[in-house]
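Final report, closing paragraph on structural work. Over the funding period we assembled a curated collection of sequence-structure pairs, and we close with a single example.
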Amino acid sequence: MSAVAKTTDAAAPITLIEAVTQALAWEMRNDDSVVVLGEDVGVNGGVFRATAGLHAQFGSNRVIDTPLDETTIAGLTVGMSLQGMKPVAEAQFDGFVYPMLDHIICHAARFRTRTRGRLHCPMVLRVPWGGGIRAPEHHSEANEAMFTNVPGLRVVMPSSPARAYGLLLAAIRDPDPVIYFEPKRIYRQYKELVPDDGEALPLDVCYVLRDGTDVTLVTWGAQVKEALEAADQLAAEGISAEVIDVATLKPLDFDTIAESVTRTGRCVIVHEAPRTAGFGAEIAARLAEDCMYDLLAPVERVTGYDTHIPLFRLEMKYLPTTERVVEAAKRVMAAG
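Its predicted structure, as stored:
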């Protein structure tokens, strides 16, 4: 089923990164088992300021500065979660997550199955994700697909301040490990009213951000902005585009996507990860299996390229643009 984020009055609009801080502070105030750990998350408040002010409020026993050692961070996080705590670890950058994979994939994701339900890992790994900030190598990767292939993990990616707040609360409260990707290109791109009421948003559902009848645009993370802009441009040309924010990639709410594509008959999937074996390929395969006779045109993918993201001057040419999404939508409209 799809979901729609609620909107109520709040003190002042905040950015996505401020919504992350707000959610962490709420949960730490209301659950003593929640701790935050990572490189520079304490005194300095994190490289992106996601944990700013938490060390002063909760102290060094709950906001823990770790060594510059991602393997140790992951191991500590798994161990804490098995001992009744709810650790929220930060990977600092998406490209720094690889040394953590052994602990995350071989242990955190498997404990519920390994122990036949006797143990589980209520942990969150926060990962600043994606390109668009002119950062050097290892700082701009879109590596979500590798985690969606791992049983036992939830993979979540918000695309707005309100969803960042509500989905992070839900991730911390989930009894199993959650990989929580934060699109850093939109950390401070715009503000939104986000009530600090501790109300979580549902995991495992897609969010229909715009209704449409002609073509379905499916995306997640920072690319939601381009999809919505494309829908506006298409509307000006008489094409009605429905926009779906996947939000939880694993487990995937395929029913919402299928229901939309069954109505529109056309689908464009947008993501900034490389094209080959990106998560969009999984969605396209599911559509081919379950919606083949409802499709009026082949499914299109608008993605990054099968290269490492180029540095600086070419970076924005690597990322899918609004124009590329519009062109793909017009191709599927012309095909059937």
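Residues 16-186 form a domain with the Rossmann fold fold (CATH 3.40.50.970). The CA atoms of residues 37 and 64 lie 5 Å apart. We thank the funder for supporting this effort.
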